């Protein structure tokens, strides 16, 4: 009898060690649907006009889905979850470093960020964000979002949860798509749309904790945002040539 009880106790302890010794990592929440965030019909889209406010200051705002969360922000804060969208107030993947590339561009007066004090109680569309940017006298709003997914051997199905420490040879791939819209603060006119994708591969052996697992997400999103900033910088002269008012010549026609 004592022997069987000891065996049962050993089995329970072994299962407990297995259960509690293996932590799990949950991938981040959903991206923001930028198309739904700027819900203009086709007819309305053609009636919206740019104000061509050059030199322009730009408010840079990260938005995610309503239920968004990730490991870093759950611990450190920085999410403003209200309404249909979430605004991320913390520059958690080094965005400020990459935004330095924008400073010094011709006809770009400055780059600013929103804080919690400027945001309304609910965020259901781009209008609430543009109104907050207007309080900073920002002429344009650069809205961006991350869509990050983790994949195992079956690359067609994203992983909803990852168990750490069970399979050291398991290969995990991470894909981040960064999407952005450049909006006119006053009218909501879309000056440009950008999208880039960054991928990374790693072995589960490097994931000894949730922090180390989340590090690969942050690195992939940071690299994606760096590419996004590069595209913005490369596209800026074309955008200026198309939308900046040009001085009139002696014949009254604009000089380009």
Tell me the series of helices and strands, N- to C-terminal.
HEHHEHEEHEHEEEEH
Largest sheet: 7 strands, mixed
Low-confidence stretches: 9-21, 249-256
The radius of gyration is: 24 Å
Provide an overview of this structure.
The chain is an alpha+beta fold and 256 residues long. It has one domain. The protein is built from seven helices and nine strands. A hairpin with a 2-residue loop joins strand 3 (79-82) and strand 4 (85-88). The longest helix is centred in the C-terminal third of the chain and has 34 residues, at 210-243. It is elongated. The model is unreliable at 9-21 and 249-256 (pLDDT under 50).
Ordered list of secondary-structure elements with their pairings:
Blueprint: H1 2-21, E1 24-25, H2 34-37, H3 42-47, E2 56-65, H4 71-76, E3 79-82, E4 85-88, H5 95-99, E5 108-113, H6 126-135, E6 140-151, E7 162-163, E8 171-184, E9 190-203, H7 210-243
Parallel strand pairs: 2-5, 2-6
Antiparallel strand pairs: 1-7, 2-4, 3-4, 6-8, 8-9
Question: Quick recap of the structure?
Answer:
The protein has 256 residues and is α+β, with helices and mostly antiparallel strands. Helices cover 33% and strands 27% of the residues.
Key terms for this structure?
256 residues; alpha+beta; 9 strands; single chain; 7 helices; two-stranded antiparallel sheet
């Amino acid at each position: 009898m004592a022997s069987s009880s000891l065996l049962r106790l050993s089995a329970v302890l072994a299962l407990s060690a297995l259960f509690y010794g293996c932590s799990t990592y949950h991938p981040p929440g959903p991206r923001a649907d930028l198309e739904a965030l700027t819900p203009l019909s086709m007819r309305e889209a053609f009636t919206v006009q740019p104000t061509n406010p050059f030199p322009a200051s730009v408010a840079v705002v990260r938005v995610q889905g309503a239920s968004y969360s990730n490991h870093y922000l759950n611990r450190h804060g920085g999410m403003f979850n209200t309404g249909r969208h979430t605004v991320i107030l913390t520059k958690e993947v080094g965005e400020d470093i990459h935004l330095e590339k924008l400073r010094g561009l011709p006809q770009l007066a400055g780059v600013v960020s929103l804080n919690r004090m400027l945001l309304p109680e609910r965020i259901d569309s781009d209008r609430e964000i543009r109104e907050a940017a207007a309080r900073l006298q920002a002429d344009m709003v650069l809205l961006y979002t991350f869509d990050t997914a983790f994949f195992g051997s079956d690359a067609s199905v994203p992983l909803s949860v990852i168990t750490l420490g069970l399979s050291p040879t398991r290969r995990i791939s991470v894909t981040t798509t960064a999407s952005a819209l450049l909006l006119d603060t006053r009218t909501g006119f879309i000056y440009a749309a950008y999208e880039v994708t960054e991928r990374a591969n790693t072995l589960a052996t490097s994931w000894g904790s949730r922090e180390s697992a989340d590090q690969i997400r942050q690195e992939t999103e940071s690299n994606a945002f760096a590419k996004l900033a590069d595209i913005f910088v490369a596209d800026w002269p074309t955008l200026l040539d198309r939308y900046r008012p040009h001085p009139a010549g002696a014949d009254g026609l604009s000089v380009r």
